[in-house]
Specification:
The chain is α+β, with helices and mostly antiparallel strands. The protein contains two helices and six strands; from the N terminus they run H-E-H-E-E-E-E-E. The chain has one domain. A hairpin with a 2-residue loop joins strand 3 and strand 4.
């Protein structure tokens, strides 16, 4: 015998099984930390909304030692979201660069 499910039940099952896996945004701007135009706002809002829907979202963005035109080294450590310095890594592009890695979570977005 065919079992009929309510549309809400079916929609819930589809939603719960539609997890995409980790979604990673690699961007030069994000949220209030490093935004110049609309890209930072778009990445911030999209990543927060996807996380609120249950998606696993990671945002990778450079840390700039200035806010606007003011040079402010270390300002990320003062952020209320609790960003922490992890370690330095070496990256080779046209030459070798040593960069610092920081980590924090905002609204279930790593």
């Amino acid at each position: 015998m065919l079992k009929i499910q309510a549309p809400v039940s079916i929609a819930k099952q589809i939603f719960e099984t539609n997890i995409l896996g980790p979604i990673v945004f690699c961007t030069p701007e994000v949220g209030t930390w490093s935004t110049v135009g609309g890209l930072g706002v778009m990445v911030d809002e999209l990543s927060l909304q996807l996380a609120s829907l249950g998606q696993n979202v990671i945002v990778i963005s450079p840390y700039y030692d200035r806010i606007g035109t003011k040079k402010m080294p270390g300002w990320l450590s003062l952020d209320p979201h609790g960003f922490k310095y992890i370690d330095n890594i070496k990256v080779v592009a046209d030459k070798e660069y040593e960069i610092g890695v920081h980590e924090g979570t905002v609204g279930n977005v790593l």
